[in-house]
Design goal:
Blueprint: H1 16-21, E1 30-32, H2 42-47, H3 70-78, E2 83-84, E3 95-102, E4 108-114, E5 120-123, E6 129-132, E7 145-153, H4 154-170
Antiparallel strand pairs: 1-6, 2-7, 3-4, 3-7, 4-5, 5-6
Length: about 170
């Protein structure tokens, strides 16, 4: 009815599920950023796509080999406007950056996105989105180590987000 507001659940700063899931990682410098969702995973989230679960067999960018090796993930990010920036994970004017993680078996495991304020954002599987102070905060047994950083211009980021929304509309996910 008119004048009534929809109740919104507050996002608490900590999560027991996250702390159980990442028991080998001292996540003392993180904050929950959202509630859990199965709509997207860390790979999609870091690419700015909140409408798909990027994983071979689920969704993978068209024209890119859907593999589990780091090179396959790099190629997926290149397809949405990213380019390599080596080991430079520092903020850079006019660009957004991602950190790509790799396990000991050379398979990709995770991706995190750098925010303009210097904090990093990650989607933890089906769990929450979190903010963390450094990409290395998530290194450990579950995600391995940061293997490389990539960047894309803000213009390319906007184009990719618009394309993801259009795809979601066609697939009736939005």
């Amino acid at each position: 009815s008119v004048g009534q507001r929809k109740r919104v659940r507050a996002v608490s700063r900590r999560s027991r599920n996250i702390e159980r899931y990442f028991s080998d990682i001292p996540l003392t410098n993180y904050e929950r950023h959202s509630h859990p969702t199965r709509s997207y995973n860390c790979i999609a989230y870091a690419a700015g796509d909140l409408f798909a679960w990027w994983q071979p067999g689920a969704y993978w960018p068209p024209g890119v080999n859907p593999g589990d090796k780091l090179v396959d993930l790099i190629n997926a990010y290149v397809s949405v406007g990213f380019e390599s920036c080596g080991t430079n994970g520092l903020p850079e004017e006019g660009f957004e950056k991602v950190a790509l993680y790799q396990g000991n078996d050379s398979k990709w495991t995770h991706a995190a996105r750098l925010r303009p304020d210097g904090w990093w954002e990650s989607k933890l599987g089906e769990l929450d989105d979190i903010l963390h102070k450094a990409p290395t905060a998530l290194e450990g047994q579950r995600y391995g180590k940061v293997a490389c950083y990539m960047k894309r211009s803000h213009a390319n980021a906007i184009k990719a987000r618009i394309a993801a929304r259009k795809r979601a509309r066609v697939n009736r996910k939005w």
